[in-house]
Specification:
Strand content: under 5%
Order of helices and strands: HHHHHHHHHHHHEEEHHEHHHH
CATH superfamily: MFS general substrate transporter like domains
Shape: globular
Oligomer: single chain
Distance between the termini: 37 Å
Radius of gyration: 22 Å
CATH topology: Growth Hormone, Chain: A
């Protein structure tokens, strides 16, 4: 060993986590910057109806969250989690560059590249986080809560600036900003990569197989062509979503069949919590669809003299996540040192209570409207509760997979969890259409009840999900306490 090698500092767990934190932050910077303006771009610039914009965005998100099941498998079995992370980020950058070009014909190919690139990327950093803190359940929950804050820090920065860039310099400049974010993320990952030297999937420790890499690239290009066709053919998109939902059920059935008695309990637990997460993401999808169009038409966006763009209202979500994540992570750690943490199913149930309250706030705001416009403060507090519910449900979704699924299949099952998320967000696009405003209606007094009635209905449904989640808590605790094991077959 030479002196230079001996002096090289050892990789740090904390800096390894920070590397993944920053990569996720910049990837989410691009994605949420785009989602802040894309529906408004389709409605205001391209002349799409509310229905078409909501369903197009729903088809895009379904595809974006369906591909991680494949991306996780590529990371686990073929290229390695770290290489697949970089590959996905590279395609994302290309997609945002195409969106930044002022040619409408590029819209669907660009969205397809973003969907596929994000899918290739998405499952792998979370898988790496689970390996950084493998074997420490308390730190794992805390790490994933803070990791979820990375998502929202990136979203906060981009959703603050992309709507402003769209107003100041045009829609395509806003999309260019998303591409810049992805480029910064890749540069940072390259600089800090040595802190992840000790973690990764099995292929990460081997030289890159160029034949396999070429096959993966060919598969990605084929997926891009297919997704381009799917998202501009809404009937086909609906059929693909139904097929993907059926495939998800088959995969859960397969994992249950191959598992030991203890592993079967883990599969049941993951399935139940995944279904509950799907219910949550129907609500989450409203932020980019019905709630953004609500802000466009029925929210007084003059905030103490500042005229907020409608898309910028979405920044309230990452703002509250950023504010609430550290105390919630501290609370989890505090519980683990005392009488014990709440069971994850209890956190999910409480999340639905908070979610119901948030949508009741949106719904009740109509009673206090002036000339069809509500104060922005109603959105501020509604988003606060909706964001807390997100931390309690979606924020722990990846930690749930890391707890119940062993390392060999963890990346794949994380991808499956993202697939479930995409299916529910597509359903969320259909739900948003219950508040679609006909093109001949421009009076805020006429559009207001469409949005507030939808939000009240969603609040009542969230209470129903709460009762179901509460009823399942004893069963979920039994699954965890009676020998449930992590599924870990090759």
């Amino acid at each position: 060993m030479n002196a230079q090698t001996a002096a090289a500092p050892a990789p740090s767990k904390a800096l390894g986590f920070t590397t993944l934190f920053l990569m996720e932050m910049w990837e989410r910077f691009g994605y949420y910057g785009m989602t802040a303006v894309i529906v408004l771009y389709m409605v205001q610039q391209l002349g799409y109806t509310d229905d078409r914009a909501n369903l197009t965005f729903g088809a895009f998100t379904a595809m974006a969250y369906a591909v991680p099941a494949i991306g996780g498998w590529i990371g686990d079995k073929i290229l390695g989690s770290k290489r697949t992370t970089v590959l996905g980020a590279s395609f994302l950058t290309l997609g945002y560059i195409l969106l930044s070009l002022p040619y409408q014909v590029l819209l669907f190919p660009a969205l397809a590249i973003v969907a596929v690139g994000g899918g290739i990327f998405k499952a792998n950093p979370g898988n790496l986080v689970s390996k950084v803190y493998a074997g420490d359940a308390a730190k794992l929950d805390s790490a994933f809560t803070l990791y979820y804050m990375a998502v929202n820090l990136g979203a906060f920065i981009s959703q603050t600036f992309t709507p402003l860039f769209a107003i100041w310099w045009g829609w395509h400049t806003a999309f260019a900003l998303c591409a810049v974010g992805l480029a910064l993320g890749q540069v940072n990952f390259f600089i800090m990569r040595r802190h992840l030297k000790h973690v990764g999937s099995e292929p990460d420790s081997k030289p890159l197989d160029m034949r396999k890499f070429g096959l993966v690239l060919a598969g990605i290009l084929a997926c891009i062509v297919a997704v381009t066709f799917i998202i501009q053919n809404l009937d086909l998109a609906r059929g693909i979503v139904y097929l993907a939902g059926f495939a998800m059920l088959v995969i859960f059935g397969w994992m249950y069949r191959i598992g030991t008695a203890g592993e079967k309990k883990g599969v049941i637990a993951v399935f139940i919590l995944t279904v509950q997460t799907m219910a949550f993401f129907i609500y989450y999808q409203q932020m980019s669809t019905s709630l953004t169009l609500f802000a466009l038409r029925n929210v007084d966006l003059n905030f103490y003299g500042y005229a907020a763009p409608p898309g910028q209202v979405q920044v309230l979500n990452p703002f509250w996540i950023f504010v609430l994540s550290p105390p919630l992570a501290w609370f989890y750690n505090r519980l683990s040192k005392g009488k014990g943490d709440f069971h994850i199913s209890t956190k999910f149930a409480f999340g639905f209570v908070v979610l119901a309250a948030g949508f009741f706030i949106y719904g009740m705001s109509g009673y206090f409207a002036v000339a069809g416009k509500i104060s922005l403060w109603w959105m501020v507090w509604g988003y606060a509760l909706q964001s807390l519910s997100e931390l309690l449900i979606s924020g722990l979704g990846l930690a749930m997979v890391a707890r119940y699924v062993g390392p060999k299949l963890r990346g794949f099952v994380m991808g499956l969890w993202f697939l479930a998320t995409g299916l529910s967000q597509y359903a969320g696009g259909f739900v948003a259409n219950y508040a679609s405003v006909p093109e001949n209606i421009t009076d805020p007094l006429q559009s207001l009840p469409l949005y507030t009635n939808l939000c009240m209905d969603l609040g009542y449904w969230a209470l129903g999900f709460t009762l179901l989640a509460l009823a399942l808590i004893p069963f979920m605790k039994w699954l965890s306490s009676s020998g449930g094991e992590a599924l870990d077959h090759a």
